[in-house]
């Protein structure tokens, strides 16, 4: 898998964001989600969306578009209701037990790396958002319905 996701890891490095593990192990942080979107045709800026939530505040979503806005994050506040709906959909899809979607090519189609971390636990999957294959479609639909800011494209 590491070879497959090398371009996505390069996007994360370009954004100069903290590691998921480092974010997830900070005091009071209950969990972190990160979605890295890679567009091989370069029609849009690659993006890294990091959602962090604690027990005390609403969740914060920071989205960085590589090469746009001086790589500064756009920040959004996410309500508990939206976060809970998103997490419920991921549980129904069996996210924590899923493997990467089959035959995803980072060079031939849009792809996403969706990661989740809580404490020392972490999980990630590689998926192609335009393919209609369950349970991956459930995950794509959940992001689209509850956290559309994560996947908003900024064209070049």
List keywords for this structure.
156 residues, alpha+beta, Mago nashi protein, six-stranded antiparallel beta sheet, 4 helices, 6 strands, 26% helix, globular
Summarize the structure.
With 156 residues, the chain is α+β, with helices and mostly antiparallel strands. Helix content is 26%, strand content 29%. It has one domain: Mago nashi protein.
Q: What is the mean predicted local confidence, pLDDT?
A: 93
| Beta strand count | 6
Overall outline:
globular
Q: Enumerate how many helices there are, as a single number.
A: 4
**Uncertain residue segments:** none
Kindly report the spatial arrangement of strands forming the biggest sheet: 4-3-2-1-5-6
The class by helix and strand makeup works out as alpha+beta
- Reported by name, the CATH topology is Mago nashi protein
The total tally of domains equals: 1
The Rg value, from CA coordinates, equals: 15 Å
Instruction: Provide the CATH architecture.
Output: 2-Layer Sandwich
End-to-end C-alpha gap:
29 Å
Name the helix and strand elements from N-terminus to C-terminus, one letter apiece: HHEEEEHEEH
Q: Class in CATH?
A: Alpha Beta
Q: Could you characterize the architecture of this molecule?
A:
The two termini are 29 Å apart. This protein has helices at residues 6-15, 20-24, 80-93, 136-146, and strands spanning 29-38, 47-54, 59-65, 74-78, 111-118, 121-127. The mean pLDDT is 93. It is globular, with a radius of gyration of 15 Å. With 156 residues, the protein is α+β, with helices and mostly antiparallel strands.
């Amino acid at each position: 898998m590491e070879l497959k996701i090398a371009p996505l890891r390069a996007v994360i490095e370009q954004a100069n964001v903290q590691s998921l593990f480092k974010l997830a192990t900070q005091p009071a942080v209950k969990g972190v989600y990160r979605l890295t979107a890679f567009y091989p045709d370069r029609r849009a800026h690659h993006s890294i969306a990091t959602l962090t939530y604690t027990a005390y505040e609403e969740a914060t979503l920071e989205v960085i578009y590589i090469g746009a806005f001086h790589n500064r994050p756009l920040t959004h506040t996410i309500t508990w209701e939206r976060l809970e709906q998103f997490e419920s959909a991921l549980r129904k899809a069996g996210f924590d037990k899923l493997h990467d979607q089959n035959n995803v090519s980072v060079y031939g189609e849009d792809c996403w790396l969706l990661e989740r971390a809580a404490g020392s636990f972490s999980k990630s999957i590689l998926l192609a958002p335009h393919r209609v294959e369950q349970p991956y479609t459930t995950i794509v639909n959940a992001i689209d319905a509850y956290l559309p800011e994560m996947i908003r494209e900024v064209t070049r």
